[in-house]
Amino acid sequence: MSTSITPDSLMTLEAYSKIRKSSAPEFIAHRKLRTVRLGEHMSVQFEDEITIRRQIQEMLHIEKIFEEDGIQSEIDAYQPLVPDGSNWKATLLIEYTEVPERQRELARLIGVEDRVFVEVEGHARIYAIADEDLDRENDEKTSAVHFLRFEFDAAQRAAVRAGGQVKLGCDHTNYLAQTVIAAETLASLAGDLSS
Questions:
Q1: Which InterPro entries did the record assign (predicted)?
Q2: Which of 92, 110, 80 is closest to 147 using CA atoms?
């Protein structure tokens, strides 16, 4: 369950700088555990307080932000990406290495962010609510990065917490893919949901 990230709960720039490198392998393992490949060209990184706290600390470190207003501004930008008990929140990455291919595919994938779903065994699909902060596509193409929220009802949350199988998928005409979320990843994600 997430708690609120506050300025007081963050490390100072000096303290974070001291542990940044030594804590990286543990963080990378946590991020990897919560990332699901979806077909050949997409990955979905499920966020939690740990991933968002690290992102905020990184932004403060890189930008050398130490003023109260600046710190609060970073918290305000990233806090909405922490799940709040009834949902999973995730970053969708669309990955094509070659620039011409990426441009072509992003044009073919307009609307893809609205066709990503999770499906709890025995329940209806939950389609992502995408990019609530701002629109990330135009008439020519979609963005390579989208922010998704999957909102669960009480029965779906209970099924996930009880160990029910969950699929992650996309049913966009130009990108059909689905996969069963691995047990160890699902165990981590189940912790984001309250009963």
A1: DUF3501
A2: 92
- Closest to 59 (Cα-Cα) out of 39, 46, 73, 48: 73
Query: For residue 13, which amino acid is it?
Result: L
Q: Which two tokens stand for residue 80?
A: 């909405």
Query: How far is residue 119's CA from residue 100's CA, in Å, rounded to a whole number?
Result: 33
DSSP characters over 134-184: S--B-SS-B-SEEEEEEE--HHHHHHHHTT--EEEEEEETTEEEEEEPPHH
**Tens-place pLDDT, residues 104-158:** 999 999 999 999 999 999 999 999 999 887 666 678 899 999 999 999 999 999 9
Q: Helices H, strands E: what count in the chain?
A: 6, 9
Q: In whole angstroms, how far apart are CA 66 and each of 16, 40, 51, 176?
A: 12, 40, 20, 45
Contact 130, 145 (CB under 8 A): no
